[in-house]
Amino acid sequence: MKFDLDELQRLFAVLREQNVSEFEQQSEGEQVRVVMQNGSPPLVALSNATSVLPPPPQAVDGKVITSPLVGTFYRAATPEGTPYVDVGAFVRKGQAVCIVEAMKLMNEIES
Questions:
Q1: Computed from CA positions of residues 91, 111, 109, 54, in that sequence, does the dihedral angle turn out positive or negative?
Q2: What Rg value do the Cα atoms of the chain yield, rounded?
Q3: CA dihedral in degrees (78, 53, 34, 10; nearest 10)?
């Protein structure tokens, strides 16, 4: 399953028309996931499906931390590394919670 820019743009248009906020497809060892929220640009993750994405977080007490930029989300510094934090964990102000890759730059996101 290979997507080109035109196919992705058609997919975004259909998702907007149908008011779909999340879409995920897995085929032939590859995976695409699209998340669209509040008129923001779509967040797209294309990957070889070596592991299943975790389920979306359930409602938790506290505040939700959102990324200030759109990019590829990394829970840990390395694929084998431990995650910075888990969903629902207590974090301190200024604590790193993930890495977002945008325009080939790795950006550490803090609480």
A1: positive
A2: 15
A3: 110
Question: pLDDT tens digits for 54-110?
Answer: 556 566 677 778 888 888 889 888 888 899 998 778 889 999 999 999 888 899 999
CA–CA separation, 23 and 35 (whole Å): 7
| Residue matched to tokens 């730059």 | 105
Instruction: Return the SS3 of 29.
Output: coil
Name the strands in the sheet holding 22-27, side by side, starting at the edge strand that comes first in the sequence. 22-27, 30-35, 43-48
**Segment 34-54, tens digit of pLDDT:** 777 766 666 666 665 444 445
Residues 6+ positions from 72 with CB-CB distance below 8 Å: 45, 100, 101, 102
Burial of 58 (0-12, 13-18, 19+ CB in 10 A): exposed
Closest CA to 69 of 41, 90, 92: 41
